[in-house]
Write a structure and sequence with these properties.
This protein is about 0% helix and about 65% strand. It is mostly beta strands and about 100 residues long. A hairpin with a 7-residue loop joins strand 3 (about 20-25) and strand 4 (about 35-40).
């Protein structure tokens, strides 16, 4: 099920997370962007950019992160204009947010 969340679309399939929010900005991107999330507790996080077919293009962040707000850059230099998926896994649960790149 897809639902509108701010300026992105969020798939909430079996997603319960120790994060209170996940945002991608700007929307749409014209160059590099930023993903921000706020963890309610320390946990294992992986942030990946994929093409619309689901192929992994870039690992933005991977590791154990402390409680609090975290931000990472999404590097778009090697990406062409189009729609991409930002997959965020936290403590084994995954959500995917679509974002648009317009160079």
């Amino acid at each position: 099920t897809w639902q509108k969340v701010g300026k992105t679309i969020l798939e909430e399939k079996d997603f319960t997370s120790p994060a209170t929010f996940v945002t991608i900005s700007p929307s749409p991107m014209k160059s590099d962007g930023k993903i921000t999330l706020k963890l309610e507790e320390k946990g294992v996080v992986e942030v990946v950019v994929m093409n619309i077919a689901g192929s992994r293009l870039q690992t933005v962040a991977s590791g154990v992160f402390d409680m609090g707000q975290h931000s990472w850059n999404i590097e778009t230099g090697r990406l062409s204009s189009g729609v991409y998926i930002c997959s965020v896994s936290i403590a084994g649960k995954t959500t995917r947010t679509l974002f648009t790149l317009q160079k």
